[in-house]
Amino acid sequence: MVIRIFVLSLLILATFSYFIPFDKVDKKESIEDLPLLVFDDSIMYTLSPQNMNRIVYSKKAIRYKTKDVLLNGSLTTRNINSKGDIITDTLLADKIVKRAEKFKFLNNVKFTRNDYVNLNTDELDYNAQTKIAFNSKPFDGNYYENYIKGENIYLDLNKYYMSAKNTHFEIDTNKGN
């Protein structure tokens, strides 16, 4: 009698468990989401035979299989223009996602070129190979202490070319007087 009750309870349990839904865990996604390395207060230098041309700093760097995520990070590049002057470009953001030579700066992005260009936006894409930065969000900033704001900025850091849509530029005519 006890065996019959046991078998019957197993049959009922198996029937109920057959109809209970469960979430299937995708192992491919969960493996890629696991960090391979985590660094605190990291600094990465890129050296060339002539000089040090790129510095990447972050409060926390997380290395995944296909990307790097940098929190509270900055990217500093140094180039020499045709006149022989050193040009320093600095990009700061709360979060930076790096895939190969492409950087995506997110949240509170600040771009600075030496002391004459300052731009603020919420998102900026930067290709380190071509040295071109662009976005599709609004921005504001200063250009030689004159106010500028607009949308969809495009910066070619090789040719020192900047363009944007819906740009508003305020020139202070009282300078130098």
Structural summary, described in words:
With 177 residues, the protein is mainly beta. It is built from two helices and ten strands. It has one domain: Lipopolysaccharide (LPS) transport protein A like domain (lipopolysaccharide transport protein A fold), CATH 2.60.450.10. 16% of the residues are buried. The model has no long low-confidence stretch (mean pLDDT 84). This is LPS export ABC transporter periplasmic protein LptC.
Tally of domains = 1
Question: Number of helical runs?
Answer: 2
- Show unreliable segments: none
Estimated radius of gyration = 26 Å
The coarse silhouette is: elongated
| CATH class assignment | Mainly Beta
SSE order in H/E notation?
HHEEEEEEEEEE
Which quaternary structure do these chains form?
A: single chain
Reconstruct the topology from this structure.
Blueprint: H1 2-19, H2 27-32, E1 37-47, E2 52-63, E3 68-80, E4 86-99, E5 102-113, E6 117-127, E7 132-134, E8 138-143, E9 146-156, E10 161-170
Antiparallel strand pairs: 1-2, 2-3, 3-4, 4-5, 5-6, 6-7, 6-8, 7-9, 8-9, 9-10
Protein name: LPS export ABC transporter periplasmic protein LptC
